[in-house]
Design brief:
Layout: H1 2-19, H2 32-39, E1 45-48, E2 54-59, H3 66-69, E3 74-76, E4 79-82, E5 87-88, E6 96-101, E7 108-109, E8 119-124, E9 130-136, E10 141-147, E11 152-155, E12 169-171, E13 177-182, H4 223-233, E14 234-241, E15 246-260, E16 266-272, E17 287-293, E18 298-305, E19 323-327, E20 334-340, E21 354-360, E22 368-373, E23 376-382, E24 388-394, E25 399-405, E26 415-421, E27 431-432, E28 434-436, E29 442-444, E30 446-447, E31 450-455, E32 458-459, E33 462-463, E34 466-471, E35 477-482, E36 489-497, E37 502-508, E38 515-520, E39 528-529, E40 544-551, E41 557-564, H5 590-593
Antiparallel strand pairs: 1-2, 2-6, 3-4, 4-5, 6-7, 8-9, 9-10, 10-11, 12-13, 13-14, 14-15, 15-16, 16-17, 17-18, 19-20, 20-21, 21-22, 23-24, 24-25, 25-26, 27-31, 28-29, 30-31, 31-34, 32-33, 34-35, 36-37, 37-38, 38-39, 40-41
Length: about 625
Amino acid sequence: MKRLLFTCAALMLLFLSVSQAQVDVEYQLPPKEILELADAPMAPSVRINREGDHMVLLYRSRYKTISELSETEMRLAGLRINPKTNIGSRERFYNNITLMKVGDKKETPVSGLPEQARLSNFSWSPNESMMAFTHTTQQGVELWVLDIEQAQCHKLTEGRLNANIGMPYDWFKDNEALLVKFLPDSRQQLTDKSESIPQGPTVSVNKGQTAQNRTYQDLLKDKADEFNFEQLAHAELYRVSLEGQKRLWKENAMYRSVSFSPDGEYIMVTTIERPFSYIVPYYRFPSTSVVYDKQGNQVKKVLEVPLTEDLPKGFMAVREGMRNLNWRSDKPATLIFAKALDGGDPEQEVEYRDEVFQWKAPFNEEPTSLLKTINRFSGIMWGDKETAAAMDYWWNNRNTKTYLFNPSDLSQEPRIIFDRNYQDRYNDPGRPVTRKNQYGESVMDIDGKHIYLMGDGYSDEGIRPFVDKYNLKTDETKRLWRANGENNLERILFALDMKKGKVLSRIESSNEYPNYYIRNVKKNKEPEAITFFENPFKSIMDIHKEVIHYKRADGIDLSATLYLPAGYDKEKKKKLPMLMWAYPREYKDKASASQVTSSPHEFTYPHYGSPVFWVTRGYA
């Protein structure tokens, strides 16, 4: 009996030890139906020049490889960086480029592309005859340039670009060179925190101030993080010609942004300064903005911003002093900025929240006031010398206003032409159509006393984009075109030639892949297709898709998109297992919350993490 009990106990111990042992499991493949969708080739991303005659087609894989996902990632000051290659660790890479002329169905391959291409950071040259891009190798980031007419590309630099913060290069306006961020030779080896020994405790000090902060991700935690961030942020600026010749333009610093004036004669450079913070990301660290001429000579230090850890309460709180510093797009070299009139505190009751100023280069005179905004200033769309439109917004009541003003005659009071709830999508008047001016910058396309407005067209009839002609003097609106929206979904992307009525649009349906078209909104004829991508997800072409409407318990009308397996008999109403995805959004009124902003004609695209994959397995 004792032997039997001992044997049983030994068997139980053996069973427990086996059941708790680790098992080596390799990555598994999903069922065939899901795998086919996941492996389906992607149609390319399309970049079209403003003339609308050349297209650059960018191809990529849908998912990163296991080896790419396994690469080292450092999370510092709100950034996620691959410290070996010096580019964002979540960067999306493309692996092939082709060209196509509008009206031609044949793609032209690009010669000279690197092997095992990992391409990103694409940017047209100012005259759009070339496109620059980066190629990330296992050792670092290289700069390449594509000649559109010749369909050839070549490498400009070795793999030492610093792409850790923002765009690693900018085009000079003469199309003959680029301003490039390189890793400095003085860069030190990064600290390995798993092996380093701290020199002291991490101490945070509260000096009795009450302040609020959002919950930011990936912040600095200690001195080792500070050191690593500084090494990864430092760069040197070089002028690089199209032949690859380099000339040092600016010495080693932590460069946050580089911005050319519209005429290309001045360059505003913003650098990150110490001290760093453990409670806010890098873009709230101290910074200095300096304007240089294009040879690199300092013209004016225009802004110094201290560490911004403490702000008043509220989403609309801002720091005091100059902010939103940008170039005015319709002038050769004039800066625009805003200042808070309420001390940056949304709780302060004031007539105007912000005042907007302009400051003409070479900045020897004082800035001059342009206008004041009732809400928080958000931007200006420039037109001609007598026409500009300023926008503001206020999160607390979801209000936004658009002010029409004459930048050449400030004695004229700005006139509010739109005053609305920005969550009210049904009554959105649209956005002004833009064109490229003599500096290659976007400005409002003004036709005599009219501008054009393009709207997304959300309505209780579905999504029906529109193009309107708006009279700047009388505020009268004439509708030039509105999408039918019965069998497909069309979105207007931008105007090619508004005087002729030519716009670029994208048309899709639930089972027809999105393609690009040229439409004439002034002529009643069918649009001209310029791309011919096929549906790569034909296995789900026949699934049922519809937008359903329902009333919540508190009386609010809501909507959702329902997917049913192909062949589902809606008459028999067989019960199915269901996956539901929902995400809460905050609205200020029931009417806005009830508006429908989805379409049954939107292409059914099984994106990463989409529940649509499971429709092929019998789920709703």
